[in-house]
Every structure is written in C-alpha cells, then in structure tokens.
Amino acid sequence: MTIKKIAIASLITTGLLSISPVSAQSGGLFQVPEKGKSYNSLAAAVKAIGGGTGTIIIAEGRYADCAVQTAGNVTYRAAVPGRVIFDNAVCERKATLVLRGRSASVDGIIFQNIAVPDANGAGIRLEKGNLNVTRSVFRNSEQGILTANDGNGAITINQSTFSGLGRCDRGLSCAHSIYVGVYGSLKVTNTRFEKGNGGHYVKSRSARVDISNNAFDDVRGKTTNYMIDLPAGSVGKIDRNVFVQGKDKENYSAFIAIAAEGKVNSSNGLAVTNNDARIAPGIQRNSVFLANWSRDTIALQSNRLGAQLKRYEER
Fold it and tell me: Per-residue b/e over 169-190, b at no fewer than 16 CB within 10 Å?
C-alpha cells in the first residue's frame, strides 16, 4: 500500500527537497517590524526583542546563523516559506534555535545538517516555555526537536516534515525525530515523518498528547524503533494517522508503545482510534500495533490494521 499523503506537508516536502537555495544577501536580513529595523544577524534581532513580543521576518537564503532566546515571545518567520534554510547552524553546542523564553513560534523554516559533540544536534532545543511550529522542515540531522522539562509548557507542531533524523550509535543514548521531555502537552497534526536513521519518530514524556492526521512512512528508515513512544504514559488521543513499518528496524516489536520506561502519567482513556497501520509489502514479520506496559485502559477502536499486526498486547 502507498502511504497516504498529508496534503500540505507533502507539498512542503516535495518543493523543499528540490530547492537550490540562494545565498543570503548582505545587510538587514532579519527584519523586526515592531522595531521598524532590520538586523544583520539572527542573534541581534532576538536581542532587540528582548523580554517583549516581536516577529523576526527572515529573508530567503541559506544561513549559518543561530540564536539563543532567553526571554520574551518571539516569532521566527520565513519571508517566503521554504526559502529560508539554516544549514549546520549551532548555538551552545545544542541547536540552531535554543529557546528558554516565554514562548516561540517558528513558521516556514528549514533546519538541516545539524550535528554536535554529544550527538543530540537539533533544529530546535526547547528548554522552557511554549512552542508553536508550522510549515517547517527538519532534515538530515541528529534530532529535529529536543526539549528539556516544563510541566506548564505546551508544544504544537502542524504542517511540517521530519526526515532523515535520529540515531542510535557510538554507545550514546538514542536521538529521535522529536523528543519531548516532561511537558504539559504535545500536539502534532498534519505532519509527515520519514526516513528515520534510528530511535523513535515521536518520543514524548508529556502528560497529554494529540497526535492526529499524520503520516509515519518508515519504508526507507534505517535501524528505527517505535513510531510513537510514550515512555511515561499519557492521556489524550492518537487519531487518524497512517503508519507503514519498513524493513530495517532496530526494534520492530510494536508501532506504538505506552509506559515502556515506567508509569508516571495516567493513560486511562487514551484514545487510539481511526488509524491505518501495516507492514510494508514484501516484508515477512509480525508486530503489535499497540504495546501497553501501563495496564491502564486504552480506548482502542476503529483502527485498520494489516494482516501481520496484532491489535494489542500488555507487557
């Protein structure tokens, strides 16, 4: 079966992968409308907003800039979605954007080729505050988005693509396409995950999740693990996603795992509904759609599963 395309995310993927990015022009590439000024570096624009609220409109081009946001509410927006690329840009040996202000929004930006000494290089390292990501691409890096802990924080990701991410090598802890720590909530919608290089596609310790209308295409994945891992348990919903498991797996035992590292959050009532899941054609193996270590009651219904998938297993 050909995996269902998520319309907008697929358009983003197709368009962006064919881009030959222009080089950034000199001078005033980072515009802050609230200040009526433009800045020559991303860090200078972030500093100008400081503890306030502002938008940084980024001219199309390829950049080596990175920034650390320590306060305020900052929106990072591509002037032309899909034409702003941060390539191997790293601050604090962590990520292109290191965020610990009140909130941040990221719109229309590509993050790629990010690697750091501890093998956790990410497009975004979220250490505190809320995060909203739309129409963005994270590719060919160690991680896409990695967070610390903020029990009051909320993360939303929409219409984005995560491709060629993750790793489990060098004797280090695995990296993942998305790895969310102890956050209040995570919402991922209309987003595509593909070509993982290890680890999980979505790993989240948040107390509540909404993972809906996404495509998880593992056909070209390499040594990958679960599609969705909620290692501490979670409530909320996993709804209307499409999952295809590929051949090259480090662990093919389950598609979705609940509380595999210990029950911290309740998973009672977690709704796993209306999903389509199967193993790619030509692969002879069996797997489990949902593996549950929590023993909480999961609302598991109306899912369309391939013949090689067991619906549910308690572990």
Answer: eeeeebbbbbbbbbbebbbbbb
